[in-house]
Amino acid sequence: MAKPKIAPKPRAKKRAPARPAPTPRGVSARPAGAAHRAAPQLQTPIDTLTYARGKIRDVPDFPKPGILFKDITPLLADPRAFHIVLDALAEPFIGEHVDAIVGIESRGFIFGSALAARLNASFVPVRKTGKLPAAVDRVAYDLEYGSATLEMHKQSIPEGAKVLVVDDLLATGGTAVATAELVRRQGGYVTAFVFVIELDYLGGRDRLVPVPVVSLLRYRAGE
Ligand code: AMP
Fold it and tell me: Rounded to whole angstroms, how far apart are CA atoms 65 and 63?
């Protein structure tokens, strides 16, 4: 019996292997410092941020007349809002190999430690003077009236570590600048500053450049 003819399989066209786009002469594929400078993008949908924002309570004239205090305790009391905030703050840094989160006393401890657990990074507290038990590095910084001191245990940050500085709120930026100084003194590298709330009108962000600033809920004057 004659063998049935089997139509030969059409040959798959050979494709040229994918090549990366050529880099123009004299231009490096990743600009120097790009990993450090590129501002991380927040991906959280607006409506969930609106939900979280609704959990910030304004307390006028606390701790002194003229201050509008942004109280985060209703947000902490609401698991959905707390999750939204933590997810949003962690998202830009997933896969970025953050070594340590430095949290600023006291509300920076709440967000910073939860973030450290999510990012598989160590948590390092920065405290007001006299609270840490072992040997400390210390930095003094100016407040509106007078000055304050922050401390961090010596040898908290390994040389060359990638660090996020975390606090609940960015106002004038003095606290964050002082904390970054402690990190740098120990040989760490501040990759970004991370805040839940930013008071835009106080200009704190301008004191932190060129390090990227991630803040979730931004307020203008009178808000
Ligand atoms: P600053 O050093 O001016 O950026 O102040 C930031 C620190 O002060 C943070 O630890 C905040 O928790 C706290 N802070 C400043 N202003 C406010 C405010 N209006 N509401 C709540 N906390 C504030």
Answer: 7
- Domain holding 215, by residue range, is 97-219
Task: Indicate which atom in ligand 1 lies nearest the CA of residue 168.
Answer: 12
Q: State if residue 103 touches ligand 1 by the CB under 6 angstroms criterion.
A: no
Domain with residue 149: its CATH number is 3.40.50.2020
Average pLDDT over residues 94-107: 98
Distance, first Cα to last Cα, the chain: 90
137 lies in a domain? yes
pLDDT at 39: 67
Residues in the chain: 223
Q: How many domains does the chain have?
A: 1
| Ligand 1 pocket test, candidate residues 73, 142, 175, most atoms within 8 A of CB | 175
Q: What is the pLDDT of residues 15-45, one digit of tens each?
A: 443 333 333 332 223 333 334 456 677 777 8
Is 51 a domain residue? Answer: no
| 60 located within any domain | no
> Catalytic amino acids?
107, 144
Single pTM value for the model:
0.83
How far is ligand 1, taken at its centre, from the CA of residue 97, in Å? 28
Q: Are 166 and 113 in contact (CB under 8 A)?
A: no
Residue 83 lies in a domain: no
d(CA 186, CA 198): 27
Ligand 1 atom, smallest distance to 202 CA: 3
- 155 pLDDT more than 50: yes
